[in-house]
């Protein structure tokens, strides 16, 4: 069967996280993406991804709460949103070359396609696997080591363009912004989404991205240039 990960690769990926699994089956499960389920009667990492998302969120929330004692809830929320975003997950996953180890479709002679979304999902699943295999404190240490540079790079709380638009509407007592998916182009592994942003009687603009969230982000970024001068 293709794409079954070798013991050597399991050892390599364990080293990337500086953690030795007691139960290697947990790591294998974390590396098995749901695309495989369509072809094999395999368990996949979706449940682990669910748990890993919450573990990552708690670790990051606790870390920035302690690192930035003078910041407000709103400022911490902006930091948190950026640090647990798909964009940051993808960046960390690529740093450790996670794409080399993910188990996807098992068809012979087929090149496996690892999308950014699969990378992010798998990284969350691995955090859950480490948490189950060890405990929260060990998992926390591993996540902070991987995220430390991203936290340090946030000199000030980042401003999400969508939040800026929302705050502008509240401040100016205008209608709330509405985002609508206009179209999706390209294959499933490399889609391009176009989203519209409308503030009734004030503004309408479009944005494009590899995900709906990214397209909304780009539409909001364009809108800021028109609204805030």
What key phrases describe this protein's structure?
mainly alpha, 3 strands, 229 residues, Ribonuclease iii, N-terminal Endonuclease Domain, Chain A, three-stranded antiparallel sheet, Double Stranded RNA Binding Domain, 9 helices
How would you sum up this structure, described in words?
It is a single chain. The protein has a three-stranded antiparallel β-sheet with strand order 1-2-3, with helices on one face. It contains nine helices and three strands; from the N terminus they run H-H-H-H-H-H-H-H-E-E-E-H. The protein folds into two domains: 7-153, Ribonuclease III domain (Ribonuclease iii, N-terminal Endonuclease Domain, Chain A, Orthogonal Bundle); 161-227, Double Stranded RNA Binding Domain (2-Layer Sandwich). 54% of the residues lie in helices and 10% in strands. It starts with 6 loop residues before the first helix and ends with a helix. A hairpin with a 3-residue loop joins strand 2 and strand 3 (203-209). Helix 3 (46-67) packs across helix 7 (136-153). Mean pLDDT is 86; it is low at 106-110.
């Amino acid at each position: 069967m293709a794409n079954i990960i070798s013991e050597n690769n399991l050892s390599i990926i364990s080293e990337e996280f500086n953690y030795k699994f007691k139960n290697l089956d947990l790591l294998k499960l974390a590396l098995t993406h749901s695309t495989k389920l369509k072809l094999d009667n395999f368990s996949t990492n979706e449940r682990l991804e669910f748990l890993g998302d919450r573990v990552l969120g708690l670790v990051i929330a606790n870390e920035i709460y302690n690192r930035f004692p003078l910041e407000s809830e709103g400022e911490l929320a902006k930091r948190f949103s950026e640090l647990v975003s798909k964009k940051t997950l993808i960046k960390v996953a690529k740093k450790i070359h996670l794409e080399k180890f993910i188990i996807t479709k098992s068809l012979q002679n087929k090149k496996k396609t690892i999308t950014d979304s699969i990378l992010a999902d798998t990284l969350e699943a691995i955090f859950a696997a480490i948490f189950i295999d060890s405990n929260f404190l060990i998992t926390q240490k591993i996540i902070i080591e991987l995220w430390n540079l991203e936290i340090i790079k946030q000199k000030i709380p980042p401003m999400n363009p969508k939040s800026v638009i929302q705050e502008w509407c509240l401040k100016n007592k205008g209608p709330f912004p509405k985002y609508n998916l206009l179209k999706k182009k390209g294959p499933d592994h490399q889609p391009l989404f176009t989203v519209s942003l409308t503030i009734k009687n004030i503004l309408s603009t479009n944005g494009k991205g590899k995900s709906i969230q990214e397209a909304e982000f780009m539409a909001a970024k364009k809108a800021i240039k028109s609204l805030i001068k």
